[in-house]
Amino acid sequence: MSQTENPTTEPKFDPVSFVKSLTSRPGVYRMVDAEGTVIYVGKAKNLKKRVGSYFRSTGLTSKTQVMVAQIVAIEITVTHTENEALILENNLIKELMPRYNVLLRDDKSYPYLLISGDDYPRLSVHRGAKRKKGKYFGPYPSAGAVRESLNLLQKLFPVRQCEDSYYQNRSRPCLQYQIKRCTAPCVGLISEADYQKDVQHTIMFLEGKNQQVMDELSNQMDVASQSLQFEQAASIRDKIISLRRVQERQYVSSMQGDSDVLAAIVRDGIAVVEVSFVRGGRNLGSKSYFPKGSSDLTESELLTAFIPQYYLGKDVPAEILLSHEVEDAQLLQDVLQTESGHKVSLRKPQRGHATRWLQMAMTNAEISLTQRISSRSNLLQRFEMLQDALELDELPKRIECFDISHTSGERTVASCVVFGLEGAIKSDYRKFNIEGITGGDDYAAMHQALSRRFTRLNNGEGKRPDLLLIDGGKGQIKEAQEVLAELNLSDLPILGIAKGPARKPGEETLFLVGRAGEVTLSADSPALHLLQQVRDEAHRFAITGHRQRRAKARKTSTLEDIAGLGPKRRQKILQQFGGLQEVKRAGVEDLQRVEGISAALAQKIYDLFHPDN
Fold first, then answer.
1. pLDDT tens across 155-195, in order?
2. Through-space distance between the first and last CA atoms of the chain, rounded to whole angstroms
3. Measured distance CA(195)–CA(197) in Å, rounded
4. How far apart are CA 377 and CA 384, in angstroms?
5. Does the keyword Cytoplasm apply (predicted)?
6. 27, 461, 608, 609: which is deepest, by most CB within 10 A?
């Protein structure tokens, strides 16, 4: 069910009459601006009350007031329950990315440890859908945390970690067997029963059952000693010692089960949520998130917005420990339980071991926030020093840099990267495939890329930069001047950065249009470091684009350029001649013999490979 005020038919949005017409049922509302863009998505237990609260005369934050002023329509979707509304809200936020919502931009899948379901199981890293048969452990916060666990487990329990293709084709033990990190099941040097013992101990260790593992190993050591197998007993003893040391290194060894610990801090216009991963009573590390659009929220509001975006559609641990109480805690808990299929507890710990985990997460959050603030401060300082060095009237809050990449003139690509006071703005990066120029003509390539970029700007697409940075010397700068003059943008500052004779960092030559002579910056100048960072990013992005374009071209058959030669005919020709090389050698008469190839089409194919004839 949807109720929408259409801005094209209504001269002005009337919130009073709109709210009066609203239902009191649960649902989701989408606020739309004059351009038809959804600027905010929210859910409500009672749509009339929730939407009406945005239009009261007092008590609104400045951010909310700015948002409400842009509303020309509100779209409503009624749901059966508040749980449904929460799930729909989360899906719409991820799809539409409204600028006034808290946005969590991290869709990367986390790594797990997988013990396969083979007769001789393999221990490996796994990402993505859990389609493979076996037991999964995690998630881990990073690939580094997984590698650390794999390395530790390989020393404790020599379960194979090699690829199945490698394992199945061994005729003798590999180096891992020589250094006692594998028992060589590939060549039958261990029985399946003995191998499964190591597998079971690995599983118990990953489940946090360290003490049970040590008890079993102690019994095995006693049996081996009584059987006078002293070398085996000593080996088991060393495992027990290693396990005890591992257990000692854990911050809390008595806490069992799987938990995530969420610590939120909002300060100095920056918000951070630190997520610590506790699996089987072991701390697997943490990850910092800086959600966009959350700087004016309280910590409680931040966590309320963060939790559904982070957990819906992902694995959810049995317990989520929070640094602050959250609104709708019961609702969030119910939805997560329904989605995950198991009980989920959301709570702020008050005592016991859980408070120690929370304190550790808060400490990490403080460190992450301090580093972020420091980084932002340093970046602002670099921009300010660049303004001073170039004697600009205003702080250049947005820098766009262009670079060209090709291989001997083939598949030329121009890159445009954007930096602001917050660092790289990757969503504004652009690549331009350059066509219709002489191969290797960097000046023409630069002219084409700048023309396309700034013609779009004149048409109202994109934002105007405060400084245009060109990777190149006076020739490239001249092209930039001509393009901007044609488009009446001559007031835009242009800075060229050319590598020195030895192409070493710190020896760059800088040319600012309108300023006589070169701009001189010392090698340790923060302003020069900023320019180098932007230039290097443009270079990287251009090379990446060029390589992608070149690789795509090499996957494409030259026959695709011939009009009238569709996929079926191309396939028939290649099958008849056994490959493109033989097609090149064929004459017109030979080509005509292929079913579906007319004389005219055969001539086109021949001419493609023999332009001189």
1. 777 888 888 888 888 888 888 888 888 889 999 899 988 89
2. 68
3. 5
4. 11
5. yes
6. 27
| Residues in Cβ contact with 450 at an 8 Å cutoff, skipping those fewer than 6 apart | 402, 479, 480, 483, 484
Q: What residues pair up with 126 in beta bridges, in sequence order?
A: 112
CATH 1.10.460.10 correct for 567-609: no
The residue type found at 341 is: G
Bridge-based pairing state of the strands 259-267 and 319-322: parallel
Query: Is residue 483 a contact partner of residue 447, using CB atoms and an 8 Å limit?
Result: yes
Query: What is the percent of the chain with per-residue pLDDT over 90, rounded to a whole number?
Result: 24
DSSP H helix total and E strand total for the chain: 20, 18
| DSSP tag of 114 | E
| CA 23 – CA 45 distance, rounded (Å) | 11
Q: What is the DSSP string of 85-143?
A: HHHHHHHHHHHH--TTS-B----PPPPEEEEE-SSS--EEEE-S---SSEEEE---SSH
Amino acid at 58: T
Strand partners, 35: none
**Dihedrals φ, ψ of 519, to 5°?**
-90, 125
Give the predicted TM-score (pTM) of the model: 0.49
Domain pair 258-371 / 567-609, same fold? no
Q: Dihedral angle at the C-alpha atoms of 113, 117, 123, 127, nearest 10 degrees?
A: -40
Tokens standing for residue 232: 């085996």
Helix, strand, or coil (residue 369): helix
Q: Are 304 and 89 in contact (CB under 8 A)?
A: no
Compute the half-sphere exposure of residue 567: CA atoms within 13 Å on the CB side of its CA. Answer: 1
Q: Was domain 398-547 assigned CATH 3.40.190.10?
A: no
ω into 139 cis (within 30 of 0): yes
List the chain domain ranges: 15-96, 116-249, 258-371, 398-547, 567-609
- How far, in Å, CA of 569 to CA of 559, rounded? 10
Number of neighbours of residue 451 by Cβ within 10 angstroms: 17
pLDDT tens for each residue of 552-603: 765 556 677 687 888 888 888 877 776 777 788 788 888 888 888 888 888 8
Strand ranges (E), 475-546:
494-498, 509-512
Question: Do you know the residue count of the chain?
Answer: 613
Percent of the chain with pLDDT over 70: 88
Distance CA(325)–CA(187), nearest Å, equals 57
* CA 612 to mean position of chain CA atoms: 50
Report how far residue 13's alpha carbon sits from residue 304's, in angstroms, rounded to the nearest whole number. 30
What pLDDT shows up at residue 145? Answer: 65
- Provide, for the chain, the percentages of residues in helix, strand and coil under a 3-state DSSP scheme, each rounded to the nearest 5: 45, 20, 35
Q: Which letter, b or e, does each residue of 192-221 get, where b requires 16 or more Cβ atoms within 10 Å of its Cβ? A: eeebeebbebbbbbbbbbbeebbebbeebb
CATH of range 258-371; options 3.30.420.340, 1.10.3720.10, 3.90.226.10, 3.30.565.10: 3.30.420.340
Give the residue among 438, 436, 453, 441 at the shortest CA–CA distance from 538: 453
Domain 15-96, classified CATH 3.40.1440.10, yes or no? yes
Q: What are the backbone angles phi and psi of residue 277, rounded to the nearest 5°? A: -105, 120
Distance, in Å, from the CA atom of 373 to the CA atom of 384, rounded to the nearest integer, reads 16
